[in-house]
Structures
1.
Amino acid sequence: MKAIITIREEERTGEISPYIYGQYFEHLGNCMYPGVWDGDSARSDGQGLRKDVIEAARELGVPVIRWPGGCYVDLYDWKDGVGPSEQRPVRPNWHWGGQELNRFGTDEFLSWCEQVGAEPYVNVNLGTGTLVDALRWIDYCNGAETADAKWRKDNGREEPYGVRLWGIGNETWGDWEAGQLGADEYAAKLANWAQFAKKYDSQLQLLGVGSYEGNDEEWDRKVIEAAGKYLSYLTIHIYGCSVDRESSDEYYPIAFTPVYFENQLRKMIGTLETTLSRMNKKPGHPIRLSLDEWNIRHYEVDPSGNGGYLLNRNSPRNLQDAIFAAGVFHAMIRLSPHVGMANYVFLVNGNGVMNVTEDAVVKTPLYHLFKQYGQWMTGKSVSVEVQSPSRLTPVPLVSNPEYGEELARKHQPVSSPYIDAVGAIGEDGSLRVAIVNRHLESGFDLSLGIPEGYGSSAAVWSLHHDDIHASNTSEAPERVVPVLRMGVSIDNTLTVPAHSIVLLRFEKA
Ligand code: AHR
């Protein structure tokens, strides 16, 4: 098959935020224990943090990471998670089941971030916590002279951590949340909490909860009107869904789910822009979207409980998931600079970018994808025109069946191109082009319209495997790995294999 990709270098849409390649940790199942913290294990450091996981995360280049939840945080008291490790209370994990050791708390999270070089993003407990709890948490992290700053120093950390990103609430509209609120109540409470957080430190960047998949314009409007002047981000969570991961019937709905993501992001950006332009007094600073939870969920029965249905212990992320994730990156790159952050669910275990057991760290195809896009697909987003055959596909397959029939919407089929491409100009002036071929069976001969001023050869990175369900395991950790070729003669044509992801980098001539 054939397609044409034309790069319009002069049409730059905006700065791509490096944070769109961000990650997420939550206290659910085996995600934190032993995924990130493993006590006295030979693989852990003096704080119990897994050194091999830190090393892999550093190599991955995690730009930002959200913690501790999610639903978990709305029943979490941060004070349980600081102080001498062995004296911390063991509590029930109120949301996900099982026990919470509280061994991975604020100091461990922030130390982990510093070692990895990731920006921390902390979500406070709006559900069952108080405003004072939240402010004291900020002060524990960032204060200099106060009682909570002294508590931090007594716990071994002299310098303030300087945490800038603070989320206020999580899916507050959901009846599964501890502390569900209506739009008016949430908007008022958020404005109130945000006001005091900003009074404490005007430089903090605050995130307010946006509506379910961007579908409730009224919710988003009320939040922006009431609290927009304090907010740097409005959050949106979108989950695709998989019912039978091994079935080839699911391939196209999953590969095309990013079309649904882009639609929902555009919808929320539209609400944001319309609301801001109607407001008498605009905030005077940009408010960006934060897609701070996203993935393809597979509802797998796991008798262990403990949030097990989300853990996907038997389904490591595979090439199909990488095709999906690349499409989500493309949507966010096209929507730069309106999308300022995203946090994949999760970095470790449970749909993870890495699968961590007591004695191994396995890098999934997603790991390689995040790493490469984070390195190359940054800078200024440029317009790319794609002429490609399309396919009529219903997306997403089913949206969140756990939310009940009324929300389990089956979408009309949409016609979407097999080839999806985006471009970026890096700080060094090089041109980067990312291409996803979503066709299951057919390769494509691409005709590339590369602007003048770039060499005719490129560095070419590709991720491909004949089997779309191929994944990496501790027995076969390198089954799906990328290939990097330097100085490949392109001369405006390129052949890409079926179901593959290919990135090109052209230096200035
Ligand atoms: O996948 C994790 C959970 O999903 C988060 O805790 C919650 O915010 C979302 O519904």
Note: Residues 403-408 have pLDDT under 50 and may be disordered.
2.
Amino acid sequence: TDVTVAPAVAETADDIAEMRIRGAATIADAAAEALAVQAERSEAETPAAFREQLRAAARTLYETRPTAVSLPNALRYVLRGMEGETVSELRGSTTSRAAEFRDDLEQAQATLGEIGANRLRDGDVVMTHCHSTDALSCIEAALEDGKHIEAIVKETRPRKQGHITARQLRELGVPVTLIVDNAARRYLDDADHVLVGADSIAADGSVINKIGTSGLAVNARERGVPVMVAAQTIKLHPDTMTGHTVAIEMRDEHEVLPEDERAEIVGDGTDSSAEPAADDDDDGLTVENPAFDVTPPRHVDAIVTERGQFPPESIVTLMRELFGETTDEPWER
Ligand code: RUB
């Protein structure tokens, strides 16, 4: 069916796909906001047309990036609250449900921060990877408790989200040491915690987060540094309860190797002495750019949520409580 999605929704979808809006919680917030905008601006004349537009908007948002489950969880939550007999009732229920979702998200992050802060002692040094608003909430709450915290911030190639983390920690007054990803093992000797966020948590307690998290966790285990994952329950992946795996996003190779740098490796195709390629497009160099990886539960010490902190192996109990057994997608109905 050909349903028009509000331009503002298409714009949000593009911002998510291009990572101008990024990070699992921020993506969820933006998606809920976009559904509210769609509801407000809808010119649908019948309840059926309104519902179809909202579902189309949700699909557009859903198709942007595959790994952070907070996105489908947000869409599902808002669409489940779309109720009413008239377009005006549907509009009202959808916008208030989206507002409720966004308030809950903010509240959950604050509560999670207070719980996570209990794990941080005065004077502790925390090593971070990528940029996680849930992880930063723990540090912020520890600072509010009057604790002195320092941070070792991994740069996080290729997109350097570590720079965002470093900037926000400096704004909070936290002394920051910025390192390249490859220096992590060396600097673990100076760290009391590894603190990361999550894009998805699977039912077995596996943590799906920025590429490099799993290697960091293995090194931390070897060094005896506890690994703490800060993840609101919106990061829990319902489909994994029935054995589905989480899709790992593969991003554009140019994030890793720009065209001009590629030419430095394989030439620009004009060098006649080079080995003849199998076909015109194949220069024999493959660049892969997975955005996320999976850290097995045995390398994670605690998952901190707004509902308390859990050893990864017991997260499934919380998932059953929150999701029950239903995993149908309202935008596919
Ligand atoms: C972001 C990332 C973050 C999680 C958690 O990856 O891996 O650690 O999304 O973030 P990307 P938050 O930059 O590719 O989106 O705690 O803010 O939800």
Note: DSSP finds eleven helices and ten strands in the chain.
